[in-house]
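ok so for the tutorial part 2 we go from a plain amino acid sequence to predicted structure tokens. step 1 is just haveing the sequence, like this:
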Amino acid sequence: MTHLSTRTRLASPVDTATYGEYRTAPETRFHARITEDGPYTARPFRYHCYGGWFCPWTHRVAITRELAGLHDIVTMSYVDDHRDARGWAFRETYGPDPVNGFTLLREAYEATEDDFDGHVAVPMLWDRFSSRVVSTDPTGIGIDLATRFRHLADTPVDTYPEALRDEIERLDRWIGPAVNHGVNTARHDAAARSALLEAFELLDGRLAHTDFLIGGVLTEADIRLWVTLVRYDTGPNTGRAINPGLHVYPHLLRYARRLWEVPAFRVTTGTPPAWA
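step 2 — the prediction. this is what the tokens look like for a chain of 276 residues:
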């Protein structure tokens, strides 16, 4: 039961006493891709991305969407920051669902799969044409936004250039586990903390004489790293639980500040970083 208001189409407040806490399911069931001749093709205004301001994976997609010039081609909206066992919902904080009028994001999944019992995830790409979930894979969504809609956008930034793709993914196989996935664990796990700080040290050296991670240009690699850096001192490292702060690494801090000056990074960031 959604307890929706027919006037506002908003979900009732979070109520863990009634519904319980949300339990995250590990699997990602939806991972279709935008292709030239498959069921999901690049069309203006066909897709909508549901996201959460709290979510770094959503943030990656949001930055890519802006850089790709898709602000008015692929629409985007945000769920409320808090949830109970019903999953993410639309409340007054960020307004109602502008596409389907759903009050709970779960309704999108139930419209796609009968008797849906999986994870209600963000970011999620929705297809208006078929009224189905396309994907909940942030990496795939981001790459498709960067590469499949270029003919529809004005002056898009190519953040996934073909010549650099292997290097972007090679770097991600290192930065992903040590930094993006390891940063929260580093608060209470010595091995994760050691891996994270070693990665920061190596990245600081890598960025000593360049503004970007790969090829001297802004790429998907920078987006993937930056969404962790921008949250570091106000999130996992609050109270300096991991180290004294990002400023310990001057080149990494300069790099983070340099990206903060790029409008696509700044306008998609909910809470400004401590070092802005």
